[in-house]
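Marked as duplicate of an earlier ticket. Keeping the data here for the record.
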Amino acid sequence: MTGDRTSPGAVMARKNEIMKRAVGIDYDRYARGPLAFDYERMMEEVGYGLEEIRRIQEANAVGHTPLIELKNITEVVRRTAHRGKGARIFLKDEAANPSGSFKARRASVSIYHAQAGGYKGVIAATSGNYGAAVASMAAMRRLAAIIVQEVYDSRRVGQPEIIEKGRACEAYGAEVLQLSVGPELFYVFLLLLEETGYFNASLYTPFSIVGIETLGVEIVEDLADREGRQPDMVVITHAGGGNVTGTARGLRAAGCPGAVVVGASVDLAGLHMASDADFNRKSFTTGHTGFGVPFATWPDRSDVPRNAARPLRYLDRYVTVTQGEVFYVTEALAQLEGLERGPAGNTSLTAAIALARDLDEDQVVVVQETEYTGAGKHPTAQLTLARENGVEVRRGDPRENVPGKRIVIPERPEQIQARQVDLDRLRRSYLRNAIEASGVRRVDPIEVAFLMEETRAPREFVQAALVDLGVSGPD
């Protein structure tokens, strides 16, 4: 391709055409209006059945990870809780998957589908564990893999955690393109898809989300086998929404609609994820509010026309923790339970420690993931980078934490807190984004019903929000 055809404007103008060919899904089939689309039909027709997913994953040694009771951490929780409080905490050790995280579940189905569709290779745009998972699964199925990462700021200073993940991708035989922060990522991604004809192993296709459903199913089955009961609460690290969506769908599929589904993110309020100045002033590259909030309030900002990860449909609660609290718990997990694991999964564990304190002793909280760790993912590497970028790091009260300016590591476990995010505020933001993106000024009953499903909100809530936005609707 030559000339203007490869200019950023020309490539972006062909975005939908490129995506349709690279994913193989005709998203227009599911449209029900300017706003509404048939989400469940899309998941049923494009996804795979549970038993088929299990066969695909078992063929690649994915899934069936251990469920571990964290007895020593539970004991610490009970020492800091009121009498009779302090739920038992269990941990699904997803680091036992081939590439060291739950992302192997979603990648396994995507790569299987790519191979079945005759694609010669796959591409994923991700700076997280998903790149390693795609590279690992592609290696098993003898497909080529290209991973596109945002790694550096304009000084060519890279995030050690992302560099570590790039190393893992290369170890699995993938070609890794490392870019600077900014809009370049999506342009390069589209250009590569068009030039290679490879499959878009997006985080946000139905193939990716159904792959995570087995995680929710296994939590229910494992706990039933061990304890003869269901979880009272499942705490899930929340970033782009896939982890929440897939796990919650799996819980429902396994007949466990009663467990409280809690999303947990590291609070990075005030830092802009696309900002060159902010890029290296954060110490977590995923599982934070920089992804968690925007993907909850507008999931279709993703690299596919209709995102299959729609967390507001499934979240019962959403809480935040601080960077310092997660570093503290990362150390506690290693020293109290003998499990050295990476930071992303420890985000949900940090929240679970605070939440378990308010539950009864006979209740059960499940933390649904861990991730592998490596040199770049250790707290020392991330905290060294923070100090080099002018961020103060000290012990003290984590309430004094300021994202991008100060990381405060707790001195005592009782200082760990889970801070509630107002879901109604996120629901209103979602509705505003949906109206602005579609441009509609009047909605019909189908669209109101769709917005109720999207936000898990009653009709009165949705209609009142639409009125505030100047949108008229059915009487």
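See parent ticket for discussion. The longest strand covers residues 144-152.
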